[in-house]
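Box 3.1 — From sequence to structure: S1 motif domain-containing protein
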Amino acid sequence: MHTLKIGTVETMTVLRKIETGYVLEKDGEQALLHHNEAKEELEENEQVTVFLYNDKKGNIAATTTLPTIRMDSYDWAEVVEVSPRLGGVFVQIGIAKEMLVSKDDLPLYESVWPKVGDKLFVTLGLDQKGRLLAIPATEGIIYREIELAPEDLLNSQVTGHVYHTSREGTAIITKENYRGFIHHFERKSEPRLGELVTARVIEVKHDGTLNLSLRPLKQHGMMEDADLILEHLQVNNGIIPFSDKSEPEDIRGTFEISKAAFKRALGKLMKEGKIEQRDGKTYLK
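Predicted structure (token representation):
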């Protein structure tokens, strides 16, 4: 029965020193501690605390660097390589070996995969071959880790990393450890998993989580939305089949904004004399 488990911290005994490092032993099992993974010279029979992992050959290796990310222990890890060919992205957990986050634990679309420099909230686990993987936290784990947000955050800005994203919306953990959710109609595009975003608090919920928006305040958003409508008119020969009477779902499906925002932008453009509405359509003057 194997008592040494990779991804964990163990206290082992120095059995002997060899050319490449030290052979460590515990309960009859051995691990190799390379010289560059030891913080100081060690002596035979000395006790040393190490983190265990697989080396490139699949053997159990040790390091005296003790990462905060271990089996059943979660923390943020920075993405250092993105490789669909190798099956996912690699993150740095604080030791020489970089850990793979499998594509099975990443979004379906590579366009919202993390980029180098993004951060993922992960733990360590094993694949079917017994190799270490970095595994993103589940929603249940997130709720166990977060803090309750105070009510006075309303209308303030928060910054955090995306830990889940989908067509429905984007979830982040802020730097203060609050959970925030950005509904799909409160964003113009879908942020990447692991991306650092800054959002505006539009609701502090009773459970201490936040509803957030990536959209600007109304007065600023009106200008952006008006430009968007003009752009659509210009590429469609000066006419679009929308007006302030159009259905909200149709407006959102084309412009990705609410009907209220659409009407505000139309009003601005009509006041400026740039457009007119007739027969349920909008025309460029």
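Summary of the box: The domain at 75-136 is CATH 2.40.50.140 (OB fold (Dihydrolipoamide Acetyltransferase, E2P)).
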